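Predict structure. Input: Aminopeptidase, 463 residues.
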Amino acid sequence: MNFKFLMLPVLALAFAGSSMAQTQGAIDSKTLNEIRSSFNADASTQALQNAITNSKSIRELALNRSKIGQTDHFFKYRVDVKGITNQKSSGRCWMFTSMNTIRPNVIKDLNLSSFDFSHNYNYFWDLFEKSNLFLENIIATADKDMGDREVVQYFKSPVDDGGVWNSFFNVAKKYGVVPTEIMPETAISNNTGQLNRILKEKLRGEAYKIRQLAAKKGNSKKVQNAKVEVLKDVYRILALSLGQPPVDFTWRYKDADGKVSEAKKYTPLEFMNLVAPDFAKDEMVMIMNDPTREYYKVYEIKNYRNLTEGVNWTYLNLPNDDIKTFAMASIKNNQAMYASCDVGKQHNRKAGVMDINTYDYASLFGVKFDMDKKARVLTRQSGSSHAMTLIGVDVDENEVPVKWEFENSWGTSSGHNGYITFTDEWFSEYMFRVVINKKYLNEKAIKALDSKPIQLPVWDYMF
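Output follows.
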């Protein structure tokens, strides 16, 4: 029997039925004609179409000429900083920024012309500890389905370069820090993509096997032994790519007056206590502007850390005005702050300026763009994407802030000699987190810090 001829009429009937009953929500010819007719191809529209279709950059076409040159790079209050760092092709902005908040004090206290920490040293331990945490998370969720949302989230990114202030806090408290010359950057630490891909493949494959082993009762010792074997391989990959981190080292320096210090031997933790004694006091707290949640509440993201025994990403949610007040107090006292923002929004990289009207896409396309910060966060249109050091604020005659300054970690060729100036309006819309000493907070904020953190899931939209 020829089934081909029998099926054709059936298919024809199916398509006929489909055309007779319009699917709910589909674009019919009437609606399409209405949409088409809304595009009025007059002379000005034709000119815009010619410009946009022949341009390599919509962004450049939208550059608001009225804003160029309107923002200077002078500040009434500015932290005394020296030198611009460069994270190159890596996602270690949080690490560079954290160290850049400490660096000015080291330069001042030791009377140095310049100084930098080894980011490579802490990067080694960050990836090593993240690998262990990933495997522990896989072991802890071995009884859950592979499609479980938490399990999916862990396998999605076993390790990466990303992190926040608590990531540096965790690794520095456990492993300390060393000067940059003790464990300098390598070609791999400056371009981390390949290393991350190799680690992810290794960790996913081994975690899948460990997960199967952990699902069976009575295998806890075998599971931990298997995990240690994986970590040996991870350590080897890291040591071959980044170099092996020192257990101790000998260091001396030449100060700004040309005097050479006595050579001394340190462990990385001893060196941390030497150059950043306040770090051990746990006086720094993360404050954040998250308009989707209640203010003056503490929130904690589940398992957002790099050490199994480390602290999670925890923050006090505050209104922008309070954050600005506290940040100004810190800057006036010459204390730089870790900060993170949505750096890609309205950023004129050439000028080193961020203003909410830097790029006028509304005028270019003749359409409205009117989401507020809350809507942008909830729809994933905006979120913190980069960490930088907050070092400056300029004010009007009433001491009201008008613009702020970041010290970036993209080298001196980026922005305004490595720095970025942003308006106070931009701060309100696109700044998210600031890490600040508790002493600059008011009584209400300090009291709120004592409340029990509200835990957020590992897949939370804000992170």
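The domain at 77-456 is CATH 3.90.70.10 (Cathepsin B; Chain A).
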